[in-house]
Every structure is written in C-alpha cells, then in structure tokens.
Design goal:
The protein is α+β, with helices and mostly antiparallel strands and 145 residues long. The protein contains six helices and six strands, in the order H-E-E-H-H-H-E-E-H-E-E-H.
C-alpha cells in the first residue's frame, strides 16, 4: 500500500520534531503528498508511522484515511484508535470497518479535535476501564506496538 495523495497524518498528527501541533498541516505537505517523503529531511517519526491502511494487505482504497474520514492506527493486540478527520464525512465503509474491528476482538477509540473525551467502541468481552488503562499505558510507552 502507498499513501498516494493522502496527507491525513501530515495534518492530523502532531510531529514533535517539527514543532507541529495536531490538526495543523505540516510545512512539507503539498497537494501531491509529502515533499520530503523520500529524503533525509523527513523526520524519523514520519518514517516510522504506519496507519492501518498502510499496514494492511488487500485493503480497499475506500478505506484510505482521506477517503473514509478516519485514520485507523493499531496500538496493541486489543486496541485501534480512529482519528476523525475534520470536514471529512465518515463513510459507511469506515463505520463497517469499526464494526469489523469489534467483531475481531478489538476496541476502537475514536478521537476528535472537537471533543475532549474519546468515544470508545468496545470489542467483544472488553471492559472499558481495562481498555482505557491499556491505551494510557501504550501512550506512556509502557506497551510497545
């Protein structure tokens, strides 16, 4: 899989190395993608980042973040997050993907720049408090992906 013209992560994710906050376009983003994608200027954070679309095999292009309205990221063996892209409609296919993740035993934590608290769609037999703790542990570096 390739990013193509998708630059959702270049806008939505914070990039500490560039002092770029969340929901702010990166200085290197263009309408054709990242202008430093294949150069040594590209921050390591960007080089290492893989959304679920890029990690997967045979995923339909309709689930590319800029097309479905959500950046899905696998964090642990039980958790995906979904970063909602402002001004993008969440497609029916993206909603079905959340349901599919749940049926496969994953909880999905949906994050929006407009909401203080995330919305958690629990996977089968998951406890909300356990999922929140596991997600916090991941964010604090106590669990590796």
């Amino acid at each position: 899989m390739e990013c193509g013209t998708c630059t959702a992560c270049c806008t939505m994710l914070p990039i500490e190395a560039l002092n770029k906050p969340m929901n702010t376009p990166c200085q290197y983003v263009t309408d054709k993608g990242c202008s430093v994608y294949n150069s040594c200027t590209k921050p390591q954070t960007c080089t290492e980042f893989m959304c679920a679309y890029l990690e997967g095999k045979g995923i339909p292009e309709e689930l590319r973040p800029d097309k479905c309205g959500i950046i899905f990221i696998k964090h642990t063996d039980r958790i995906f997050s979904g970063i909602l892209i402002p001004n993008n409609n969440i497609t029916i296919m993206a909603k079905r993907q959340i349901e599919s993740f749940n049926q496969q035993g994953y909880s999905v934590i949906l994050l929006s720049v407009y909401e203080k608290d995330p919305y958690i769609k629990l996977g089968i037999n998951h406890n909300k408090d356990d999922i929140i703790k596991e997600y916090e542990d991941f964010l604090n570096g106590n669990i590796q992906h």
